[in-house]
Design a protein that fits this description.
The chain is α+β, with helices and mostly antiparallel strands. About 25% of the residues lie in helices and about 25% in strands. It folds into 2 domains: about 160 residues, no CATH class; about 50 residues, no CATH class.
């Protein structure tokens, strides 16, 4: 009998497996690239939102800080004349008050300041307040230097006014037209272009004394009878008379 020849093992082709592995690797790589792209996009959008939010907070803080600086300079000055009331008028959109210019300012003496909110813009106008001015027209009709500036644009500013009740509590009103008293504080509120509330701040009026109370012989002091508003009228704190144009002299008459 003839012996049968031994069979050689047949080689197994691996080319098909290599193709499947390559396609699988490419699919996984494409998926990872898409996922990485989505992650990067999310990170960029979150970064943009964070930057926009930070910028918005910074802008609102700047507006509040600017208005606080203005309101804290208010002094309870009076119009000229025996029946002259305080130089102060307020509505939701307009605030008119008097202040003393600091030594570092361009002008000196009493100044009349008007803050007017017109939509999403807030304008400031400041001019000299003559001691003989009996009303607002007596100031605006004079040919004096007017300093105008835009304090902010993009938010709507609204004012409100706190009055002190007899029992010590405070009441809030959106209009202050009484000239026989000053508010104890002013609320400043912000809203965006869509009318959405963006926050508010309560700013106390820190100066208690009128010029006539802090500087005897110069002006009337409503804290004492008119007959006493002369040589015998001493400052409320019992100190020496001060120059109302001297900025640091008012510090002894401000609330802590």
């Amino acid at each position: 009998m003839r012996s049968s020849p031994s069979r050689q093992p047949r080689a197994v082709s691996t080319s098909g497996f290599l193709l499947v592995e390559a396609l699988t690797a490419m699919a996984i790589g494409a998926f990872l690239l898409v996922a990485l792209g989505s992650l990067v996009s999310l990170v960029l959008r979150a970064s943009d939102r964070t930057a926009a939010t930070s910028q918005e907070i910074e802008e609102k803080s700047r507006i509040f800080s600017t208005l606080i600086d203005r309101i804290e300079t208010i002094t309870p000055q009076r119009w000229a004349g025996a029946a002259g009331g305080f130089v102060f008028e307020g509505t939701e959109t307009t605030l008119l008050f008097a202040r003393f210019a600091k030594s570092s300012d361009t002008g000196t003496g009493s100044r009349l300041v008007i803050l007017a909110s017109d939509g999403a813009s807030l304008q400031e106008e400041e001019r000299l307040l003559p001691p003989d001015a009996s009303n607002i027209a007596a100031v605006t009709d004079r040919a004096t230097d007017v300093v105008s500036a835009r304090l902010q644009q993009g938010y709507t500013v609204r004012f409100a006014y706190f009055s002190r009740l007899p029992d010590g509590r405070e009441a809030l009103t959106d209009r202050w037209s009484g000239r026989r008293a000053m508010p104890v504080a002013i609320r400043v509120a912000l809203s965006d272009r869509g009318g959405k509330y963006q926050g508010s701040v309560r700013v106390p009026i820190r100066v208690d004394a009128e010029p006539g109370c802090a500087a005897p012989k110069q002006r009337i002091c409503s804290l004492v009878p008119d007959a006493a508003s002369g040589a015998g009228n001493m400052p409320p704190a019992g100190g020496e008379p001060i120059d109302p144009d001297e900025s640091r002299g008012w510090e002894r008459y401000v609330r802590p």
